[in-house]
Amino acid sequence: MAIAMRVDVAVVGAGLAGLMAALPLQAAGYSVLLLEKSRGLGGRLASYRLNGSRCDRGVRYLTEEGRLLSGFVRSLRQRGVLEPWIEQGHIYTAEGLRLDSPRTHYVAPEGMSQIAKELGQGLTVWYSRRVQTLAPESEGWHLGLEAVVEGSEVPLEVKAQAVILAIPAPQALPIVETLPGMTQEILTPLASVSYDPCLTLLAQYPQNGVPAEIPWCSLEFPGDRDLSWLGLDSSKGTSSAPRGDRPLVVINSSPELARSHIDDEDVTPVIEHLLNQGAAHVGDWLNTPETTHLHRWRYAFPRQTWSQDSLVLPTPFPLICCGDWCGSHQVETALRSGLAAASATNAQLQQHPLPTLSQLMNSPPK
Ligand SMILES: Cc1cc2nc3c(=O)[nH]c(=O)nc-3n(C[C@H](O)[C@H](O)[C@H](O)COP(=O)(O)OP(=O)(O)OC[C@H]3O[C@@H](n4cnc5c(N)ncnc54)[C@H](O)[C@@H]3O)c2cc1C
């Protein structure tokens, strides 16, 4: 017989928005379960190991911009997770390479996913479980899960008083559109959101394969047909948390290039193209990496966004959607939206006092 887990709130998606929704609700006394289809926390706050070297293949750095984000960065610095990386990035324009306006770029030397690991310490998370179905029952929601990897099959059912979908709107839509009473009008906010994709190339070089002095660490390509960003990822390490023993560069494609190649079976031509385009700007050495790895982000950056902090659906039990698509400030929006979803859920449940972000960040993890 199938065993179902019962909780007050099921949060689908363990990215930043999901973590920000789960933390205040758990602190207020609700039982909370996070369901995540991948094997780790953080979503697009993603780190990767290439030949033993740590690198970031999602969020590149954080800055103290935005009310929530600046407090978040300060708290993560105090907890020793974030360190200043550079004081100024570079921009490549038609006139050539120039310095961007000064603003400190903060990174987690151990990898940006360390931020999510730090936040998620006291939370219950089921990994490798994709939420596929949602159905109202007499006392709450029934969630049907799919095991993404072998060994995560039991249990595959969850019952919850309330559900928060903290996932990109195009991934939330198929879960909610089959619910009873869902009209086109109700679904319009989800259906109208769109994302730009991104191809992220990790390229690792032999020690003697790069110039002794590389004049940039973070290089933006506004308006470029093929590239959006190039970063010297190996420079994010510190002496106490080195990233690896070989230089590593991260290249993010433009949305246009990603749209044309996201489903390519053979990725060799697009890898060569990204390297060639990058080399044309920074030097031929970029063309000869030792190892490469290409990641396809289908939902990388929100393009068409929803105008409110979260989306409360008119369902018999609380069902709230949130994520970085609820605004246009990426990580700042994900923080704000997750907190808004927690607050909207609480308003429909016990209306407990919820901690603020600064109270959450300044209390030791449970
Ligand atoms: C290459 C790249 C670079 C970036 N750089 C920056 C940057 O420098 N600064 C910045 O502010 N932002 C940056 N961003 C954007 C930033 O990563 C996002 O805005 C933010 O992390 C979004 O958080 P989220 O929680 O809304 O979504 P996500 O991080 O996408 O989290 C959603 C989670 O839900 C899971 N999920 C999806 N569907 C299901 C399902 N059915 N069942 C279970 N789990 C599911 C996913 O696996 C994922 O873990 C970057 C993004 C990319 C791709």
What are the key terms here?
366 residues, alpha/beta, FAD/NAD(P)-binding domain, Polyamine Oxidase, Chain A, domain 2, binds flavin-adenine dinucleotide
Describe this structure in words.
The chain is an alpha/beta fold and 366 residues long. Helix content is 26%, strand content 30%. The strands form four sheets. Strands 1, 2, 9, 10, 11, 12, 18 and 19 form an eight-stranded mixed β-sheet that branches. The protein has a seven-stranded mixed β-sheet with strand order 7-6-14-15-16-13-17, with helices on one face. The protein has a two-stranded antiparallel sheet with strand order 3-4. The protein has helices at residues 16-27, 67-78, 113-119, 169-176, 184-191, 255-261, 268-282, 330-348, 357-362, and strands spanning 4-12, 32-35, 47-50, 53-56, 83-86, 90-93, 96-99, 105-107, 124-126, 129-136, 141-147, 157-165, 194-204, 218-220, 227-232, 248-253, 291-304, 311-312, 319-321. A hairpin with a 2-residue loop joins strand 3 and strand 4 (53-56). The two termini are 34 Å apart. The chain folds into two domains: 4-43 and 117-193 and 306-362, FAD/NAD(P)-binding domain (3-Layer(bba) Sandwich), CATH 3.50.50; 47-113 and 194-303, Polyamine Oxidase, Chain A, domain 2 (Alpha-Beta Complex). Helix 1 packs parallel to helix 8. It has nine helices and 19 strands. The relative contact order is 0.20. The chain binds flavin-adenine dinucleotide. Residues 12-18, 35-38, 43-45, 58-61, 130-131, 166-168, 171, 198, 200, 252, 297, 300-301, 323-324, 330-331, 334 line the site of flavin-adenine dinucleotide.
